[in-house]
Amino acid sequence: MQLKPILLFFGYKLVRLALLLIAVAVLTFGMMSLSPIDPVQAYVGADMLQISAAQRELIAQRWGLDQPMIVRFWDWFGQIIQGNWGTSMVFNQPVLQVIGQRFQVSLQLLAIAWLLSGLLGLVLGVLAGAFEGTWIDRGIRLYAYTLASSPTFWVALLLLILFSVSLRLTPICCAAPPGMLAQNVTFWQHLHHLLLPALALSIIGIASIALHTRQKLIDVLHSDYVLFARAQGESLWGILQHHGLRNILLPALTLQFASLSELFGGSVLVEQVFAYPGLGQATVQAALRSDVPLLVGIVFFSALFVYAGNTLADLSYQVIDPRIRIGGRRTT
Amino acid sequence: MLSVSNLSVTFKQYEQGLRRRQLTVITELDLDVKAGEVVAVVGASGSGKSLLAHAILGILPENATVGGTMLFQGQPLTPSRCQRLRGKAIALIPQSVGYLDPLMRVGQQVQRVAQLNGLSKPAARTAVKRTFDRYDLPPQAERCYPFQVSGGMARRVLVSTAVVSHAELIIADEPTPGLHPEVVVETLNHLRELAQEGRGVILITHDIEAALLVADRVAVFYAGTTAEIASTQDFAAGNLRHPYTQALWRSLPQNDFMPVPGNQPNPEALPVGCLFSDRCPWMTEACLPERPRLRTVRGGLVRCIHADR
Lengths: 332, 309
Ligand code: SF4
Fold this sequence. Notes:
The complex is a heterodimer. Chain A is mainly alpha-helical. Chain A folds into 3 domains: 1-34; 36-84, no CATH class; 93-331, MetI-like (MetI-like fold, Orthogonal Bundle), CATH 1.10.3720. Chain A has helices at 3-34, 39-44, 53-62, 69-81, 95-130, 135-149, 152-166, 187-221, 224-231, 236-273, 279-288, 292-320, 322-325; strands at residues 87-88, 93-94. Chain A has a two-stranded antiparallel ribbon. The longest helix of chain A has 38 residues, at 236-273. Chain B has a domain at 34-53 and 78-89 and 167-302: 3-Layer(aba) Sandwich (Rossmann fold). In chain B, α3 crosses α4 (121-134) and α3 packs parallel to α5 (151-163).
């Protein structure tokens, strides 16, 4: 692959990202200004009753709240760009620090769920596609449609009731046994707590990946090149191994990267159900307790994250597909 | 080597719930191929040419029913025998690079055919090298993806897939359309060579001129049946027996360049009598009650009751 198209690709993506972030900033700022949350009150909190109206005025003036909206926007946006994202009121820590810590916890959850949904989705999709029309296919499709149409938090609750409450196989909450210091938690305890939330989260992705993979495989199996492979005496298994997987892997991988955004959204619900202290749970807390700086930080961060996922999806095509990688260069 | 007699292929189609359609795409089709000869199968699209190839290879879709008999080297071609022979004793040369896996290097694909024929990996690799050499394909062609090879190279790669298999019967399905005239001649010569090595070759094409350049005998298909099987010399010598073959011959540019009027009958509602009756200038009452049988007239086979007039 030549260097120039790559640079062009990334240049284009960066410009898009900048535009996206500006749009997000304008929207967020607009909503903040219109929301009923009074910044002074939010800052002072319960002590509000103890300060006079004149003092309030003074604070508002110091903060520039009397300035026109456009001036305030540029002040605020300038700070954001400089990396000053403010302090979270709920956690009493700089916003970037909160996001960093919380995301690390969420990342493990996301990674496991992502791999699980990708692998299971692929396997189920291949099975259904290879045995199109049989009871295997019908069973998998029924399963996928059922999953696709049931809400995540409900599935998470069912799993919790079954595995944690009835069977007592998995812990009922949190990322570690309660009351234990972080450095004393063993790897297995960690994994034990991670498993059920990750499973619940992965279920979101499985259905769509399985159904897409199935459709793609059916297209491949009806293609001319598979007909020719059959004429060469290739068996169904040989066709899957030599032509099927090769041709469905690319769209599957793209789908897999694109599903990152869905997973990220799902993690908010799943972490809430399992009281898993990740970024998703922090989002809910920030929203419930009007922690505007944290909320804004999370909005920016998720925009970045989703964008990165989609960019990886685009990039995977460029890198893997020889038709795009090598382009129209012919050897005659 | 191959003898097909009275072959029929019918598709069952379900449309709108339970209403079932029967599509008879091949009716009473006959063909025979001997070792060392090229037999061209000529006909318009929809005359059942490609389906014949798929029937011989046993790769028709599941909703197809096959009737009649097919003998390969004296033994009937049952589905299980088809499965054992295809790709090994009987090979297909497909129409275009569209029949190659777009994401697999062409060398690998040819090598796969050799391996399916029981060669070990190193032996298969050598076989690929030898075959590519034989067809003047540069070594780097092995590492090309199908979209990278030019039309002429693609043809030679496709021929290579059949040659590494040591097949005794080779079916080339429309190998010439859209090609540069030089490449057409080259491709046809390759087929001729394969026959000279003792293989039987079936050349499926709608291009009579190409067929006459290379074939020993020409089978003309019409609406899924064999209208006539003539030797190549019969065409220029004016010794054609069936009115459809004669009309096809006259439609060539160097002859009268007169297209054959009308269309092939609808496969859902085939006439009871001769399939060509609605377009035939010689048609009489006698053609209508039943299908004419294939019979020998002046050294060729023909399905027409008035052929000897
Ligand atoms: S059988 Fe009759 S209708 Fe058919 S081709 Fe011969 S003359 Fe024509």
